[in-house]
Amino acid sequence: MKRFFIGALAFIGALSILFVVGVVGLLMLAASSKPGVPSNLVLELDLQQPLPEYTLDTSLAGAFGEEPTSLRDVVEGLEKARTDPRVKSLVVRIGQPGSAAQVQELRDAVKAFRASGKRAVAYADGFGEAGNGTGAYYLATAFDAVYIQPSGDVGLTGLVMETPFARDAFAKFGVKPEFGKRAEYKNAVNTFTDAAYGPHQREATEAYGLSLFNQVVKGVAEGRKLSEDEVRALIDRAPFMGQQAVDAKLVDGLRYRDEIHDELKQQAGDGAQLLYVDKYLERAGRPNQTGTTIALIYGVGEVLRGKSQSNPLSGGQVMGGDTVAAAFRKAVEDPSVKAILFRVDSPGGSYSASDTIRREVQRAREAGKPVIVSMGTYAASGGYFVAMAGDKIVAQPGTLTGSIGVYNGKFVTSELWAKLGVNFDTIAFGKNATFSSSDQEFTPEQRTQLESELDTIYLDFTSRAAQARNMPLEKLQSVARGRVWTGEDALERGLVDALGGYAKALELAKEAAKLEKDAPVRIVVFPRPRPTGQVLSELLGKHDADNSDDEAAGSQAVMSSQVLEQVRAVYRVGAKLGLMGQGAEGRMLYAPVPEVRW
């Protein structure tokens, strides 16, 4: 019997080795037979869903399925295509393009593509279909021409901000939120403690929304060659059905997909083919692959201690303090790296994890490696904390920025459990052993301790921000107070240095590295993507890290599937109400993003 078990284990081990060797062999075979780029092509892009900023462990995703196209993939694909004579034009189907900052990043890329003399066309079944299509249409106006189906509409109806307030629901269930915050605009806890917008939250939310609205109006006016007053009047009259949209000069015609594609291929010339942007980039190669090395480090998702990882329920990612800090150390140690581009897309999170990353940004600069920060959808609270030590900060006009503040506290659930017939009895050793307990309210002494902790963290945050931004503390605190700003408003208040996206950040990184504006550079992502074989071996339980830096530079990736979508919808509602997530410990520097429907 013993021999049987030994033989069975040996057989399973041999199969595992053969499986890994087989997968690697198939990947090598696939790479060797990779098709080329057609000699005459029309680039195609489908934006039915927002593009991810970054995907963890892409080597594994690429081994077992289609690797998702990222925002950077599209931006660099269009950059590559600008100077490629094989690419004649671009056609994009627009559905749900994402946040204001993401839309603006895509608009910038499309405008740069058009500036090379190549044609870009946007189309949609309809922008909104009796709903709000403002964001999608805003993106479309960056193109040479915009078309919808004859049955389509243009729902250019403006934007609306929505925030849930669950105070009364918590009260009915017997849950008591006990929180403190710094300062009056730190609105993360208002969902738990209030029944509606208070004066400070309303003021900040209205200002943020108005700034976004004005950016949309300006962009649409420029793209469609209308005055801003005309655009505002059209918004108040929307939505428009097909011919109405044509008459209002919002679209250039009513056409179906096949008509648009046939026309573009005919204009491109004989034998023209369609090719997705990501496939083109894969075959043609990325730009910025030769020259002086610039490191690209991603800080995406809620900031927490430990490794970066993906969340299969939210569909989002976690910015692990250990992983991002290790990436900075690796980039600093690499003698070929002359500057670091730090892409931040985060609503914040853990104070200590944020400080871990901020420290490595500071150390990189002290080591002579300038750090340029590029902000995505948001860089708020802890997301701003990790960014503020950079040499320069770049944000899109619509990037949610700031929220320099802190909150902490807990939910007391003893009454809820009592209603359910459950009673918790407590035996504690230590006067403050129940400080974080959900069974008991804060004692007066514990409440004093909480308030003191908030004061300390807020002073540390604002002091470090003032030093990093070369600003008197009093001035910094006047624009802090937990308040969020658009990137455009943040620029006016000294919280960022320039408006733009990847292209602007790269320009500043070259400048910081003392390179000419048109100097060739090689962008390298840190931490380096792990080989597929290594990822597979780790799944089988083998870990090859030699030290803590190697261990931290990895990630904990969870591959999600379509069956999770319905669960995610429920999760997102719970997350808004504070019922999901990492708890108060990990969310002291956190800014919930206002839900913008557009």
From TrEMBL:
GO molecular function: serine-type peptidase activity
Cell location: Membrane
GO BP terms in the entry: signal peptide processing
Top-level division of the source organism's lineage: Bacteria
Active site: K186 (proton donor/acceptor), S381 (nucleophile)
UniProt KW keywords: Hydrolase, Membrane, Protease, Serine protease, Transmembrane, Transmembrane helix
Transmembrane segments: 7-31
Pfam families for the chain: Peptidase_S49
Record InterPro entries: ClpP/crotonase-like_dom_sf (IPR029045), Pept_S49_pIV (IPR004634), Pept_S49_SppA (IPR004635), Peptidase_S49 (IPR002142), S49_SppA_67K_type_N (IPR047217), S49_SppA_C (IPR047272)
Gene Ontology CC: one annotated term: membrane
Domain Peptidase S49: 113-268, 364-515
SUPFAM superfamilies for the chain: ClpP/crotonase
Gene3D superfamilies recorded: 2-enoyl-CoA Hydratase, Chain A, domain 1
Family the UniProt entry places it in: Belongs to the peptidase S49 family.
NCBIfam families to which the protein is assigned, alphabetical: SppA_67K, SppA_dom
Name the UniProt record assigns to this protein: Signal peptide peptidase SppA
Organism: Corallococcus exercitus
